[in-house]
Write a structure and sequence with these properties.
The complex is a heterodimer of chains A (418) and B (199). With 418 residues, chain A is an alpha+beta fold. Helices cover 57% and strands 10% of the residues of chain A. Chain B is an alpha+beta fold and 199 residues long. Classes of the chains: A alpha+beta (418), B alpha+beta (199). Chain A: InterPro entries: Nucleotide-bd_a/b_plait_sf (IPR012677), RBD_domain_sf (IPR035979), RRM_dom (IPR000504).
């Protein structure tokens, strides 16, 4: 259970308080910051290296700073090596993530408090409680701090001694960071190989509910439209096709989890009169652009079979621009009715929803529309029927091939046994 | 656990049967308009518009309207199929159909369903067929989008044609009105010795 409840965030960059919780803070999923559970650490670590690169690449260090790093390269090594034993312990010990790190915190914590004292005008204090909690919980803090600190430096306070101690801190932190980056890959490789092994064989995986699927409901999600738009801007949006149309969004999330080992949010596209009854579509929001691209290329090169003989197709998708009202044909207005002297109530009349009466022009025209609707129904039915036939043909073929391959394997076994 | 999931799904299916799918809606139709319109047939419980993220933006809107009971839903579908029903404009009528499970955004998972997935390798005999199916999926999608495009074109054609008809009608009315008001009709009547009131 949660020990604390957080309802607002404070953006240090924009100096604004938000009611909404972002999914990620500086590239990290929020759930890593709070109420960490045993089973989440595993995933946290997998993502770790990527995050490191992310933040180091983007962290808004001022140029003054970058210049400083070269001079202190030696120092980095020193500080890195001094923390080495602790780090190693940290990495080998599955559960003791917090323990080893805590030794750093008094130092960093103090530093931060000092800054926040100095910079109360930027409102840093507001951020402190969650950050502090985070310190005790995750190992990802060190590279968060320079980020935070460097952002602070942008704000104000050019006081010299502050800057000196500040840069020294970050040097120290950088050392830690380098050390970590070099350590992680081994672990990652192991994981990676495991996944590869899984993919290469023709293992049929039963899709179960995704691990810790419920954590996504910890925080109020942003409206789906916004997340969709953001994902498109980021390039992490993928459209999956040829799913069973009756799958639910959470089942699709499960499929993606089992196929790509990626935690995503998925949404089945609701069927309308124009969607295919054979191929269900779903939007998938991956966490990163890379993950989305890997998934698409995997789906193109290999075949992911889901359920009864359905190879899944994945592609990038462009959303239609929001906001533009759509053009709708078929409703007409007569703008200047002057040939009839209108009575008061006639002028005030609003067009209400109604069945048209058979003695009007409206009725005659409506009949033309009904005829068109009927035609449209027929041509869609024809298309769907034809497509169903084509799919059926292929389905039979694939079943035959499956039997072939089964016989093939069985034959091999017979030969081996004889 | 299992039985509660089944109960949930059964409740959902019942809701589907009570729901009407309405499309060919003008962008002016709001939830309130839909509610008032369909309250004539019974009690509207909820209205949900189906968002359209990908398709060409000229597709008319569609909505799911949940009614109080199955009978009301059925009645709406039947009557709207036989009589043109106008909503926020004319003469294009709206279209109603029975709702389907897949039209709903939030739906519970089907209890007891097991989904399996696997990666096919290039060496697998089924791989080629799977590739073929993938092509088929693409082909079908483009066929559908082509059909949709021609349907939209067809609709536009009808709309233009009707608007021409309406303009012609309007012009005719205007002409008659003009002739009557500026006294031309009277003068002509005198000229030809016809009693104007008889004509």
């Amino acid at each position: 259970m949660a020990d604390y409840v957080f309802s607002r965030t404070f953006d240090v960059g924009n100096c604004k308080i938000y009611d909404m919780f972002e999914d990620t803070i500086a590239g990290h999923e929020v759930e890593h910051f709070f109420n960490c559970r045993e089973d989440q650490k595993f995933i946290g670590r997998l993502k770790f290296k990527m995050n490191l690169e992310d933040t180091t690449g983007k962290s808004g260090l001022s140029s003054k700073f970058e210049a400083g790093t070269a001079v202190t390269a030696v120092k980095n090594v020193q500080s890195g090596s001094s923390t080495n034993p602790e780090k190693r312990e940290n990495l080998t010990d599955e559960d003791g993530m917090g323990a080893a790190n805590i030794s750093h915190y008094p130092l960093e914590g103090r530093a931060k408090v000092k800054y926040s004292d100095a910079l109360t005008s930027t409102g840093v204090l507001n951020v402190c409680p969650p950050k502090k909690r985070k310190l005790q919980r995750t190992s990802e803090v060190p590279e968060m701090l320079p980020n935070l600190l460097s952002r602070l430096s942008h704000h104000k306070e050019k006081s010299l001694d502050a800057q000196i101690s500040f840069s020294e801190k970050s040097k120290l932190l950088k050392g830690v960071k380098f050390e970590k980056a070099s350590k992680i890959p081994h672990k990652e490789m192991d994981q990676f190989e495991q996944h590869e092994g899984l993919k290469a064989g023709i293992h049929i995986v039963e899709v179960t509910r995704r691990a810790n699927a419920d954590t996504s409901k910890w925080f109020k999600q942003q409206p789906w439209e916004e997340r969709l738009q953001r994902a498109q801007d980021k390039g992490s949006l993928v459209l999956l096709e040829n799913l069973d149309p009756s799958y639910t969004s959470s089942e699709v999330e499960g499929i993606v989890w089992h196929a790509f080992k990626e935690k995503v949010s998925a949404k089945m596209i609701q069927r309308s009169s124009f969607s295919s009854p054979h191929s269900g579509q779903a939007f998938i929001i991956f966490r990163t652009k890379d993950a989305a691209e890997v998934a698409i290329s995997d789906l193109t090169k290999k075949c992911l079979m889901v359920g009864n003989e359905r190879p899944v197709v994945g592609r990038k998708v462009t959303l239609r621009e929001p906001g533009n009202p759509c053009k709708f044909v078929g409703h007409m207005v007569i703008d200047k009715i002057k040939f009839q002297k209108q009575r008061e109530e006639q002028r005030n009349a609003v067009s209400t929803s109604h069945f048209s009466q058979p003695n009007t022009i409206e009725y005659g025209m409506a009949m033309e529309w009904l005829a068109l609707q009927e035609k449209s129904n027929q041509w869609w039915d024809a298309l769907n029927e034809q497509q169903a036939k084509e799919i059926g043909d292929c389905g039979r073929q694939i079943k035959n091939r499956h039997n072939q391959s089964k016989n093939f394997y069985l034959g091999n076994q017979c030969m081996l046994s004889s | 656990m299992e039985s509660s999931a089944e109960a949930e799904y059964a409740a959902f299916e019942e809701k589907v049967r009570r729901t009407v799918y309405v499309d060919s809606l003008s962008p002016l139709v709001t939830e309130a308009v839909l509610k008032t319109a369909l309250n004539q047939f019974g009690n509207v419980c909820s209205v949900q518009f189906i968002p359209n993220y990908t398709d060409s933006k000229n597709i008319p809107r569609a909505a799911l309207v949940e009614m109080e009971n199955m009978k009301q839903a059925k009645q709406i579908v039947e009557e709207m199929a036989n009589f043109p029903f106008m909503m926020s404009g004319m003469p294009r009528p709206v279209r109603a159909r029975a709702a389907e499970v897949e039209m709903f955004d939030e739906r519970p998972r089907k209890p007891g369903r097991r989904i399996q997935c696997c990666w096919l390798d290039r060496t697998d005999p089924a791989f080629e067929v799977a590739k073929k199916i993938k092509h088929l999926v693409r082909k079908h999608a483009s066929e559908a989008s082509f059909l949709l495009k021609s349907q939209l074109a067809e609709e536009e054609k009808l709309a233009n044609q009707q608007s021409e008809t309406l303009k012609a009608n309007y012009k005719k009315h205007e002409l008659i009105e003009g002739v009557l008001t500026d006294g031309t009709a009277n003068r002509l009547a005198r000229r030809y010795n016809i009693n104007f009131m008889d004509a």
